[in-house]
Amino acid sequence: MTRRAILFVADGHRDDFLRPDLCPNLAGFAETGRRFHNHTGNFPSATRASAASIATGCWPGTHGLHGNTMGLPGAGGTVIHDVGDPAFVGSLRAAFGRTLKVPTLAERLAPVGGALIASNVSPGAAYFHDPDGHGHVVHRVGSFGPGRCPLGPDEAPIVSHDAAGDMALCDWFCDRMTGEDGSALGVLWLSDPDLSMHADALGSARHLAGVAAADACFGKLRDSVDAMRAAGDDVLLIACSDHGQETVIGHVAIGDELVAAGLKDGPDSTEVAVAPQGGSGLIYLAGDGVGRLDEITAFLTAHPHVGEVFPGAAMRAVGQAEGDGLAIAFSMARDSQENENGVSGRIWVCTSDSKPGKPVGRGSHGGLGRWERHPFLIAGGGRFAPGTNEHGRTRLIDIAPTILRHLGQPRDGMDGLALPHD
Ligand SMILES: [Zn+2]
């Protein structure tokens, strides 16, 4: 009997939308598997650093990928980069001589069956599952095999960035995983419902259509897992999301406000650099900026649209760490009010010229809001007790050690803990 693990991620799917009327396949899996009701996302509650945490079992402060945007040394201080850009893996390597600071599942599993990651979110979020090329990463912008050798269109599909593309990628992934050369680990990461939640109000027909589309993909995948089990494989199936979303109240350009307050030299200055993360932000200090930590912390703490502020070592409380220029993390303010569709949770969003943020009234995420940080999680197969519920807190970093435990591999050097079976 061959042990294998399949991880299904429906990006952005809030735990409270995992309902039988909206997503019968996932809700059915929750009934027959073990559901984790108190699953919590990362800080920032954003996809790219969360993908790296799922891939490594470590907090961002440990793996070194800080958020959806992050600062790298440059221009005499810190320059903010978009982590979603396909070129960012190379930029990170050029800055520090490495990509992530810790090994990924793809690296750990390369000698024992390998990993196939198929992702339809941003290129950066896909590539940080395996930035150094130990397994196979399939993405519409470019796919890679071991050694980061590019895969041609006959070896990997090029799908659209929408629900139809999610299903096309799912079909290809299921064929590949049930075929003769199926990997020990398969990861399928869909763009929906996150894409649909950003495109309209939470609870809208568009959001619900995105939930249904992701659920249809899960139904197809579950049938493939059933076929793998019928053929004799011992398959652990994990279904989850990486974060949720809340409704945008308004926007604040924190970097511009620091300039106006005399705490940053200019809009493009590099001694103080703000990396927006939707419902939160990260601040990098260099040179003359280092001495402004206390003043900037006081400015943010007094700001009516900023929530919690974590200067220096206090960032450890949210899984970030001082170093590489990162000096302050902050969440934006929020409330628990409902939108026009009765969906609770609203957030302020941190913006910059290059990151204008999602429009008011639509969904977004990135901060410490209850629903931003409440993705769903279900595990079935392996030794997970069927039809059971866990109410203790679990985290994104607990997924990788759970997969390694099932595959009989060591799980040293991880911040997370394998999920309880019963
Ligand atoms: Zn996401």
UniProtKB/TrEMBL annotation:
Recorded GO terms, molecular function?
hydrolase activity
Q: Where are the transmembrane segments?
A: none
SUPFAM superfamilies attached here? Alkaline phosphatase-like
Signal peptide residue numbers? none
Gene3D superfamilies, per database record: Alkaline Phosphatase, subunit A
- According to UniProt, the name of this protein is Predicted pyrophosphatase or phosphodiesterase, AlkP superfamily
Q: Which InterPro entries match?
A: Alkaline_phosphatase_core_sf, Phosphodiest/P_Trfase
Q: Which domain of life is it from?
A: Bacteria
